[in-house]
Amino acid sequence: MAVTIGAGARVGALQALLPLDPLENRILACHALGITRIGLITQSERLLSAPEAAALADLVERRMRGEPIAYIVGRREFYGLDFAVSEAVLIPRPDTELLVDLALERLPVQGRMLDMGTGSGAIAVAVAHTRPDAGITALDVSAAALEVARANACAHRAAVRFVHSDWFAGVEGESFDLIVSNPPYIADGDVHLAQGDLRFEPVGALTDHADGLSALRTIVAGAPRHLPPRGWLLMEHGYDQADQVRALLAGAGYTEVESWRDLAGIERVSGGRRAA
Question: Labelling 247: which of 59, 93, 147, 155 has CA 20 to 30 A away?
């Protein structure tokens, strides 16, 4: 669907002219015009130039085709911080803030944490920004994702060591007080992969191309070699996987196995401690 926004339109009239919901209209207008939300108000009588009108129309058309707002503007807020995102990484979601909260509660003073499959670096950077005393390592198999993560760490002056690695391969012989991960956990063929924002996100960061548990199995099996006795492993998973993940942890000998609910009441993170 073509969107026509004429040159000479008033900034203050854009909410009525644009076809999206008010929040998305405002975000895209601010991005296209290079102004803040306050600017939309203080510059309400300003008239759009032809290049501004064309740029805004292009952004609105992209959104109407389903492209996520975060990819269009290249930003997403997470844990109170502004993160750069691109199509090389998953869009950080509020559900994952639970994993950050749980990690911060369990990370000892000057402790070491490993974030596996870091993507945009949201988890690692949020923890490092909150706990500058800690030693944070983050790994990912995607070099493109690591470029985004490094930029985010730099932007927030967060001390994070990044490692290009296929799961534990790049940290052999290292030990961490805490390991966290938001791995690919959507089963191959799941209908959600063809819906909403997921259509645009990197498929390898969403699905394991199997039953949705293979990455979780790899992490559960490999983590004890990198944890001290009673060190924690915490993993985000799908809305219906908590029972299975707890079974994996218990079967591998972890103790204090538990699942935690997100703000929607869904068991979103499960974890346990390496046996003493």
Answer: 93
| 140 annotated binding-site participant | yes
Residue 82 assigned ligand-binding role: no
Sheet holding 112-116, edge to edge: 160-164, 135-140, 112-116, 178-181, 232-236, 267-273, 255-261
Tell me if 184 is assigned to a ligand binding site.
yes
Contacts of 184 (CB under 8 A, 6+ apart): 117, 204, 205, 206, 207, 208, 215
Is the whole-model pTM more than 0.90?
Answer: yes
182 is in an annotated binding site: yes
Q: What 8-state DSSP symbol labels residue 9? A: -
Is position 260 annotated in a ligand binding site?
no
Residue 259, marked binder: no
Give the pLDDT confidence of 101-139 residue by residue, as tens digits.
999 999 999 999 999 999 999 999 999 999 999 999 999
Domain with CATH 3.40.50.150 in the chain: 90-273
Q: What is the CATH number of domain 90-273?
A: 3.40.50.150
120 is in an annotated binding site: yes
119 annotated as a binding-site residue: yes
